[in-house]
Each structure stands twice: as C-alpha cells, then as structure tokens.
Design a protein that fits this description.
The complex is a heterodimer. By secondary structure, chain A is an alpha/beta fold. Helix content of chain A is 32%, strand content 15%. A four-stranded antiparallel sheet of chain A has the order 1-6-7-8, covered by helices on one side. Chain A has a four-stranded parallel sheet with strand order 2-3-4-5. In chain A, a hairpin with a 4-residue loop joins strand 6 and strand 7. Chain A starts with 7 loop residues before the first strand and ends in an 8-residue tail after the last helix. Chain B is of the alpha/beta class. Chain B has three domains: 180 residues, 2-Layer Sandwich (Aconitase, domain 3); 88 residues, 3-Layer(aba) Sandwich (Aconitase, Domain 2), CATH 3.40.1060; 175 residues, Aconitase, domain 3, CATH 3.30.499.10. Chain B is built from 16 helices and 21 strands. In chain B, the strands form six sheets. A five-stranded parallel sheet of chain B has the order 7-6-5-8-9. Chain B has a five-stranded parallel sheet with strand order 19-18-17-20-21. A four-stranded parallel sheet of chain B has the order 13-12-11-14. The radius of gyration of chain B is 22 Å and the shape is globular. The model of chain B has no long low-confidence stretch (mean pLDDT 96). The chains are: A alpha/beta, B alpha/beta.
Chain lengths: 199, 475
C-alpha cells in the first residue's frame, strides 16, 4: 500500500483569507449523506460560494487550476469529517499552506498524502499578498527542506516530523506500517487490564 | 526529592500513563503506534472505511472492540423503516451490512440501546477510565470525562483502526485547567466550557490534551463532566479528560458493559491508579475562577465568540487581539449590533439535545424551567433525548409531559438539529437558541441560519420568553 514518495509539491496557488474556517464550511453536512467520497469536489465551500455570489476565491478565474490552497489560522477546525480534505483534493488541491491547521484535519490530510505546511504569520501575509498580486507564479513546497519557495524568495515552513516522514517515504496510508507490528499488537492488548468484560 | 515513594521524574499525568500503556511501538519519525481499546463507529464516517478495507483485502482485526450505532442521519419524528429519506436509508443499510459481515455489535433503534454515540458509550459502561477510545467523530473527546484518552479521527484512520486496532499519532502535550471555587446558581457545565474556550480561544488547544481539574470539576457529576470534555475540540484540543475518582467508579457500577462482581473491584483499583499523580508536570497550566462565571451565550460564528448573558456585545474597533476581521465577519453573518446587550435577542427556534447536552440531567434542568410557562408564540421548540435510554428515563419521570404541556415537541433519540444531516433543520435566517456545540455558519442546516449556543436551561428560558433571557430570573 506504499505510494511513490512525495518530496515536493509544485504549482500555482489560491489564497483563501480568514481564520478558524471550519469543516462545515468546507463541505456542508448535507453532502455527507453518502457512502462514497465521489462527487464531493464540486460542493467544496458550496454555501460560502453561494453567499459570495461569485466573489469567492474558489470561483476567481485568476486562481483557476491552483493546486495549493493558502489559508489562515486553525484551518479545518470542527468536525472530523474526512469529506473536507476529500472534497478539496477532488477539486484539485494537492497541498495546504497556512498559519496553523486543526489537528484532525491535518491528520486526515496526511492520510491522503496532502501536506499541510505552516508559516510564521508575517511570512504567510507576504506569501498571500504575493500570490494575490501574481497568481500565475509557481510555488514550490519542499517537504524535505521544510521550505516554501515563491517569487519573493524562500520561507522556512513547519511540517511535523511524523507527517514529513510518511510523505517522504510514501507511507501515508498507515495501515501497512501499523500491520508491520504483527503480534506486538495482540501482546499490547493482552497486557491491558481492561476490556475483558466485553471483549 | 520524593513524596509517597515516587521521585518527581516518576510522576505522570493520566495522559502519559494511558499513552505508555497503549504504546505498541514508537514509529520512525517520532509518532507512536497506539493501541485503541475501544472503537466506536456510526453511519456517516464508516462506510468508506469498510470499502477501503475490502479493497485492501483485510479483515477487522478485533471485531469485539468495535461497537456501532446510528445517530447522525436518523430522523427524530419517525424511525420507521425504510427511512423516508432514501439516502439515509442507504447509509443505515450499509452500516447494518458492514456490522453483520464483520461481526460488529450494532445498537440500532430496534435494540432499545440506540442513541448518540457519545451518549450511549458512557451509559452502557463501554467508556471506562484508563482506556483509549477513537471514533470517526470529533466529539469523541466527550468520553474523557471518565479518564479515558478519547479523540476523533477521520475515515482513513477508521480504516486503520478496523484493520489494526492501532493509530499512528504524535503524543499531545497536556494543559491542566483548574476551575476553582464554586459555580453560582444557574451556571452549568456548559457555561464552564464556554468560558474556557472564550479565554483560551478556538485554536488554543491545538497540540494539547486538556486535563480539567479543580474543585468545580471535582464537584461535577459525570454527566456534567461529559459536557465539559465534549467541547474540548471546540477549543482546538482533540482530547480532554477528567481524572477518575469515586464518582466515576460509582457511575460505572452495574452498567451492562462494566466489569461485574470481584472483577469490578479489581478494575476500580486500576482506574484509581490511572489518575494523574499529584505533582505531575504539565506543559501549561491555567486557572479559572468558577465564582465569576455567568450563564453564557455565543453571539458569533465560532464557540469562542461568547459572552455572559448580562454582558454587551464586543466592539470590533476595541479589539486588541488581532481578531477584528473575524469579529466583523461574525457580525455581518449574525446581524447583531456591537455594544448591544445579548439578552433580548429574539429567537425563532429552541433546540435541546445533542452529545453536549442531551442527557437526563440536561432534560431535568430544562424541564425545571419549562414548568414555569409556555413556549412563546412563533418559537418552534424541540427536545431530543440523546439516547433511547435517556428517553425512557425522561418518560418515567414525566418530563416528556412537562415539555409537551409547555409547548415543546418531544422527539426520538438522535443528533437532530445539531448538525443538519436529518430532517431537523433551520430555515432561512432563523435564529436558534441551541444546547449543541457548534455555531458555525450553516451548521444547523440553513446556509444563513444563526445559532446561539447556551445551556439547556438557558435554551428553555429563551423558548419561553422568545428571546435570550437570563435563566437565573426563572429558577
């Protein structure tokens, strides 16, 4: 189940400003009434986009074809729905750059091979302004060096060690790695003092 | 330096004890392969996980450690099969099929034990101290009330747990939050957690587990602790817990899935030992004075945007925290006016229920208020028990009749209007006084609907008066 290693993401970006954007906004709950993830891409940010009447970054032609979404602080907070990164992935996004990410969202992204890189607030502000001015520029997210390259130079980025390793090794589908522990899983279970009443 | 035979270095928090006991191995890169003692699933976030498992040709490794229920999509007016909503029926059928195929116990409506996953875990005695609990739902933090390390996961991780009973995770830091003093009358567990999130922010808990402690938390019933831990995730903390004590042990005695007889006593001793050691080190500590808390109401679009019911709405122009843009966005959506009091804000809908506040003690407190009058004209008011067991208990106490007599609708168990995946939804720009956990834009089913979070008693007060009201005037 290993995937090809992911060392960098290269592409144009879309800037989505605002902090604490929750997963209900990324994919409204009515689209979770499904048993497959197919078709979620077209509904990403559906209600925000309707209310913005065409003035939403995802509908901005200048950002068309972007594969990197640049966001604010605590992006993806709230519900654990993997439908949120699934919808963004199916819309063409391959990576996220922001001030910070909610933990469950970031974990879901890693499981899909989508890096979430963090930048210092001042660097993020510069990157947002630069991409807004020149949306055709290509960004390079270097996962190995933990770096974002843009027209204005190179920015030091954050990427947790565990996530970085899974991406670089192509082991973000964690099942295979976890199975490698073999009998140690059963040994751990046997050592635990609970569960006997219902296991 | 030692106390009680333990050196300072040996002193551990509950998080560290539970984490260490469940560590299968350390993974390259620093994450832990953590064994998950109890896995809970529901109809929304599991079908794709079972499909992935099938695609990989893997069995469920420990089927007896996974339990299922149906809560998000279940209608609360009629649960007659087939469900009227074909998509909901399809999801329920998929859950039934997956549980049957993999020998997983399902608590469906016919079982009499169905309910919101975070309500039934504790009431069945599945939720126990010292355990690790995962569920494809962010409010899994609820179970921390029993001294479990419990957290929400996504669907790919549900697949990982089904296939391996493990997750690859970084160990969180622990922030200890002491709530001191004693709560004034009319101030509830909901107000405590809203105050914590207001102070620490909706992102303040990222990277942390929250350990709730201090006299106010220790004096709480287990149901109140469930409310506090439930909303840890709204403060950014994936996991929040309370150290187990005698109240925890008393709650579990006699529960269907709790150990019985001599085994219970052995378990209780182990549970006591999982509590954080006195003097354990914490990455951060915060103290909140419980005596100064008031009934709280959210006014904005995230749970941190809340104030006491006797306060006035904040002025974005005076904000020094760099959140001016967020405040302005919230005002634009909510249509409220900075500087005005929140009390008196008119409501259209009142919702009592959810994994935050859908337990029997919540219904009792709301009923105390409901007895004082009738639901205001033009207000649609719903009471939705968190589980079939809660519903039975409420009926036995006559609470359903109290609510009906006051003009509330009495419904069947489910997530209902907390999250708009079933027929219970706001319409248009309706304003809802809600005992749930999220006031996000569109959360209650109308893209422009507005949510004011508060305690169940405050929701009942708002329902009677047709506007946000200080419940202390009605108690």
């Amino acid at each position: 189940m290993a995937s090809p290693p992911l060392r960098e993401v290269r592409g144009t970006a879309c800037v989505l400003r605002g902090d604490d954007i929750d997963t209900d906004r990324i994919i409204p709950a009515r689209f979770l009434r499904c048993v497959v993830f197919d078709g979620l891409g077209e509904h990403a940010f559906e209600d925000d986009r309707l209310q913005a009447k065409g003035d939403h970054p995802l509908d901005d032609e200048r950002f068309a074809g972007a594969s990197i979404l640049v966001v604010g602080r605590n992006f993806g907070c709230g519900s654990s729905r993997e439908h949120a990164p699934q919808a963004l992935m199916r819309r063409g996004f391959r990576a996220f750059v922001g001030a910070s990410f909610a933990e469950i969202f970031a974990g879901n992204c890693v499981a899909l091979g989508l890096p979430c890189l963090t930048l210092a607030p001042a660097d993020l502000a510069q990157l947002m302004d630069s991409v807004s001015l020149d949306p055709k520029q290509t960004l390079v997210l270097d996962l190995e060096a933990r770096r974002v390259e843009y027209r204005g130079g190179r920015l030091a980025a954050g990427l947790p060690d565990g996530a970085r390793r899974q991406l670089l090794e192509g082991t973000w589908n964690a099942t295979a790695v976890l199975l490698e522990a073999g009998e140690r899983i059963e040994q751990t279970a046997a050592r635990l003092a609970y569960g006997s009443s219902w296991v | 330096m030692s106390a009680g035979g333990k050196s300072l270095l040996d002193k551990k928090s509950l998080l560290d004890k539970v984490w260490d006991a469940h560590t299968v191995r350390e993974l390259p890169g620093g994450d832990t392969q953590l064994f998950i003692g109890l896995h809970l699933i529901h109809e929304v976030t599991s079908p794709q996980a079972f499909a992935m498992l099938k695609e990989a040709g893997l069995p469920v490794r420990f089927p007896s450690r996974t339990f299922a229920t149906v809560d998000h999509i279940i209608p609360t007016q009629s649960q007659q099969r087939p469900l009227r909503d074909a998509l909901a029926e399809q999801m329920l059928v998929a859950l039934e099929r997956n549980c049957a195929e993999h020998d997983i116990r399902l608590f469906d409506p016919a079982s009499g034990q169905q309910g919101i996953v975070h309500v039934i875990g504790p009431e069945l005695g599945l939720t126990q101290p010292g355990t690790t609990i995962a569920c494809g739902d962010s409010h899994t933090s609820t179970h921390g009330a029993f001294g479990a390390v419990a957290f929400g996961i996504g669907t790919s991780q549900v697949r990982d747990v089904l296939a391996t009973q493990c997750l690859a995770l970084p160990r969180p830091k622990v922030r200890r939050i002491d709530v001191t003093g004693k709560l004034p009358a009319g101030v509830y567990a909901k107000d405590v957690i809203l105050a914590i999130i207001r102070q620490l922010g909706v992102h303040g808990g990222v990277g942390y587990a929250y350990e709730y402690a201090g006299p106010v938390i220790e004096a709480m019933t287990l149901e109140e602790r469930l409310t506090v831990c439930n909303m840890s995730i709204e403060g950014g903390a994936r996991c929040g817990y309370v150290n187990p004590d005698e109240a925890t042990i008393a709650y579990l005695a006699g529960r269907p899935f709790a150990p019985q007889g001599a085994e219970f006593e052995r378990a209780a001793a182990a549970w006591r030992a999982t509590a954080s050691d006195a003097g354990a080190a914490y990455a951060d500590r915060v103290e909140i004075d419980g005596r100064r808390l008031a009934p709280s109401v959210t006014w904005g679009i995230n749970p941190g945007q809340n104030i006491g019911v006797d306060e006035r709405l904040p002025k974005p122009g005076l904000d020094a925290s760099g959140q001016r843009a967020s405040l302005e966005e919230a005002y634009a959506f909510m249509g409220l006016v900075p500087g005005e009091p929140i009390a008196g804000t008119r409501i259209d809908v009142a919702f009592i229920g959810s994994c935050t506040n859908g337990r029997i003690s919540d219904l009792r407190e709301a009923a105390r208020v409901a007895r004082k009058g009738r639901v205001a004209p033009n207000v649609r008011a719903l009471v939705v028990p968190g589980s079939q067991a809660v519903a039975r208990q409420a009926v036995a106490e006559g609470l359903d009749e109290v609510f009906r007599a006051a003009g509330f609708e009495w419904r069947e168990a489910g997530c209902s209007m907390c999250l708009a995946m079933n027929p219970d939804k706001l319409v248009g720009r309706e304003v809802c006084a809600s005992s749930s956990n999220r006031n996000f834009k569109g959360r209650q089913g109308s893209p422009t609907g507005r949510t004011l979070l508060m305690s169940p008693a405050m929701v009942a007060a708002a329902a009677l008066r047709g506007q946000v009201s200080d419940v202390r005037e009605l108690l």
